[in-house]
Every structure is written in C-alpha cells, then in structure tokens.
Amino acid sequence: MKPRIYLKVGDRVKHLRYNVWGCGKVVEEKHSSLEGGFCLVRVLFDDGIERSFINDMDNEACCYYAGVRII
C-alpha cells in the first residue's frame, strides 16, 4: 500500500505554531522502500534551519497534523 503524500519538493509552507521560523520550502523528499516505512521531507525555513517532518497522511504524526500548511 502506497503512502498518501502531503508535500512535494518545491512546495512553500508555514508552521501554524512557530511563526518565528518564517516560511519554508520543501528541499528534499525521502521514501522508504520497505512496506510501512517512513516518508520524510526536509524543509528549509527562513530562519536558515532545515527541519524534517513525516510526510505520510496515513501517519498520525504527519506534518499536516503537526501544523505544517502549504501556502
């Protein structure tokens, strides 16, 4: 079963709870080749820090549920 992906490379995002981070851009996607493995994205925010998030809408820890939104 393929994961339901939320973000893709190039998407512009913001975090609802951390406005001080500024806006971010998805710079990398990583997908596990194993059944049930994680899908991750790395986002470079305006504050200069890259942060990683789970990118599978079927996972309760997905970045969408954590507050990351596409702008």
Which strands sit side by side, in order, in the main sheet? 4-3-2-1-5
Structural category: mainly beta
Distance between the termini: 29 Å
Give the second-level CATH assignment, the architecture. Beta Barrel
Total number of strands: 5
Tell me roughly what share of residues is in helical segments.
under 10%
**Low confidence ranges:** none
Please tell me the total number of domains.
Answer: 1
Rg estimate, integer Å: 12 Å
The topology string of helices and strands comes to: EEEEHE
Assembly status = single chain
Q: Tally the helices: what do you get?
A: 1
Mean pLDDT: 93
Our estimate of the beta-strand percent is 35-45%
- Text of the CATH class: Mainly Beta
Specify the overall morphology.
Answer: globular
Structural account:
The chain has a five-stranded antiparallel sheet. It is mainly β and 71 residues long. Helices cover 6% and strands 38% of the residues.
Write the layout of secondary structure elements.
Layout: E1 12-15, E2 24-31, E3 39-45, E4 50-54, H1 63-66, E5 68-70
Comma- or semicolon-separated keywords:
single chain; 71 residues; mainly beta; OB fold (Dihydrolipoamide Acetyltransferase, E2P); 5-stranded antiparallel sheet; 1 helix
Summarize the structure.
The chain has one helix at 63-66; strands spanning 12-15, 24-31, 39-45, 50-54, 68-70. It is mainly beta.
